[in-house]
């Protein structure tokens, strides 16, 4: 059976899960150069699933193409600034529409996602739970463009968020803030829900910048993209 046939799909999914986990937990360091052959040896799988995993990770902003192969994407503080500005605008619009259009069952499902992220902490489960909360919340708007915009933005901040989420105290605080947002949406309090989302995003941004600045010596120059200008 060829590697790209449906029966082999789980192999690519497992490779993606392992690679993403190693990138999020910084086992694969930002700026580190790698190749398909090196990844084949590291993860014990053949080239096709490695290529599929790399394609997905490039889409998530975790891997970039390099002159000779690939590199784990360096942290880019300028890009993070722009992403959080964008998220603030898009999530504000999404949560206001969510207050108008949500159903109780949808909110219950998001609460379950939030709780799962607190109780099942692994790089992959945390990635899925953190992504699901923001994307599911945006999906309640009923606007697929808002949902896709939030999904892309969250994808591109998820690794930097790991630097903060690896702290239990930070995970507990994020759980509290996420739960508060859902409660406000449930009560259809648009202005308060939008303010809670904005406050949450700005606090996450602040924590990420602090964590990245503190890690400069650890990751070295190649771990950070050059600043503008």
TrEMBL record:
Coiled coil: none annotated. Keywords: DNA-binding, Transcription, Transcription regulation. Residues 9-75 form the HTH gntR-type domain. This is GntR family transcriptional regulator. InterPro entries: GntR_C, TF_FadR/GntR_C, Tscrpt_reg_HTH_GntR, WH-like_DNA-bd_sf, WH_DNA-bd_sf. PANTHER family: GNTR FAMILY REGULATORY PROTEIN (PTHR43537:SF45), TRANSCRIPTIONAL REGULATOR, GNTR FAMILY (PTHR43537). One of its GO terms (molecular function) is DNA binding. It comes from the Bacteria.
């Amino acid at each position: 059976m060829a590697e790209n046939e449906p029966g082999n799909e789980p192999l690519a999914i497992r490779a993606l899960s392992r690679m993403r986990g190693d990138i999020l937990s910084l086992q694969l360091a930002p700026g580190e150069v790698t190749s398909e052959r090196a990844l084949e040896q590291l993860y014990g799988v053949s080239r096709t699933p490695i290529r599929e995993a790399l394609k997905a990770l490039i889409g998530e902003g975790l891997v970039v193409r390099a002159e000779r192969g690939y590199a784990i994407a360096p942290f880019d503080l300028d890009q993070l600034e722009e992403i959080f500005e964008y998220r603030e605008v898009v999530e504000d619009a999404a949560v206001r529409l969510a207050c108008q259009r949500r159903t109780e069952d949808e909110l219950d499902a998001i609460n379950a996602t939030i709780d799962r992220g607190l109780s099942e902490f692994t790089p992959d489960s945390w990635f899925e739970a953190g992504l699901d909360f923001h994307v599911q919340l945006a999906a309640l708007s009923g606007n697929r463009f808002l949902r896709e915009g939030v999904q892309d933005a969250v994808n591109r901040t998820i690794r930097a968020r790991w630097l903060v989420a690896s702290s239990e105290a930070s995970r507990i605080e994020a759980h509290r803030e996420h739960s508060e947002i859902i409660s406000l949406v449930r009560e259809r309090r648009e202005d308060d829900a939008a303010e809670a989302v904005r406050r949450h995003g700005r606090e996450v941004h602040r924590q990420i910048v602090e964590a990245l600045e503190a890690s400069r010596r650890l990751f070295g120059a190649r771990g950070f993209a050059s600043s503008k200008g």
